[in-house]
Amino acid sequence: MNRKTILLLLLLASFSGISQNSSIQDTLYYDKDWREATKIDYYYYSTFSKSSIKYLDKELIYVTDHYKNGITQMTGYKTAIESSERIGLYSFYTKKGKLECHRLYKYDKTINDFPVIKEFSSLVKKCNDTNIDFFVSFFPKGEVKEAGYLSAEDISICQWIEYNPIGKKIYYLFEIKNCQKDGAYKMFYSKDKLWKEGFYKEGKRSGIWKIYDHSGTLKKENIYQNDKLVEKKKY
User: Fold this and answer.
1) How confident is the model over 9-21, as pLDDT tens digits?
2) What tens digit of pLDDT does each residue of 188-210 get?
3) What's the rounded Cα separation, in Å, for the pair 84 and 90?
4) Residue 170 burial by Cβ neighbours in a 10 Å radius (0-12, 13-18, 19+)
5) Which of 40, 41, 60, 39 is nearest to 49 (CA)?
6) CA 88: distance to chain centroid?
7) First CA to last CA across the chain, in angstroms?
8) Most exposed: 10, 50, 117, 145, by fewest CB within 10 Å?
9) What is the pLDDT of residue 153?
């Protein structure tokens, strides 16, 4: 065996080692309810590989869930295959492979590892609560549908933005506390062009609500008490 052949074999062996090390264990199979299933009778399957991203100085495992036809259903990260704790960016897809939503777990500690989320978190005010996640969903053609913060208990908190499904340039900014609108509310014709503004108190409209035309001129003021309209003004 000549020297060139030996070097080629060593090179091939090194690539083989890299490939084996990146894959962590055999594929896991699940039924429609995500209960363990066999390779013959399954609906989803999961694969695992090493990642370069670390959390608390520990390398994370990259998880990919697939529909039975091979299309990706979800991608995400965890510290161990058997762990149920989600860390970092999780992305979910439809059966046709369309991106449905992102959720960034442990936002404050992982946002720098997943800068793609900064584009969406910049749409709302930063939430000062601790132990929060960030969520963004999309319409079928890829436009943002809604975005905002979630507590560890999956409760919407702080400021959210929501786009109108008919006129997608129309959007709303609102505060959520205790699972209901509470605080400033704004509705826009399009980017930075204000349409309505007012306040919610414990899920009910309260105080002065202002309505503007497309030029930004104030046209109406409605006054609410406990979600009931008590006075109107036109300009």
Assistant:
1) 333 333 333 333 4
2) 998 889 999 999 998 899 999 99
3) 13
4) middle
5) 60
6) 10
7) 94
8) 10
9) 84
CA atoms within 13 A on the CB side of 232: 4
In this structure, what token pair is assigned to residue 197? 């503004």
Name 196's bridge partners.
Answer: 187, 211
| DSSP-derived secondary structure letter, 116 | G
pLDDT, mean over the chain: 87
Contact 144, 138 (CB under 8 A): yes
pTM of this prediction exceeds 0.85: no
CB atoms within 10 A of CB 61: 20
Amino acid at 207: G
The H or E element spanning position 102 is strand 99-105
**Total Cβ atoms within 10 A of residue 36:** 9
Backbone angles phi, psi at 69, to 5 degrees: -80, 5
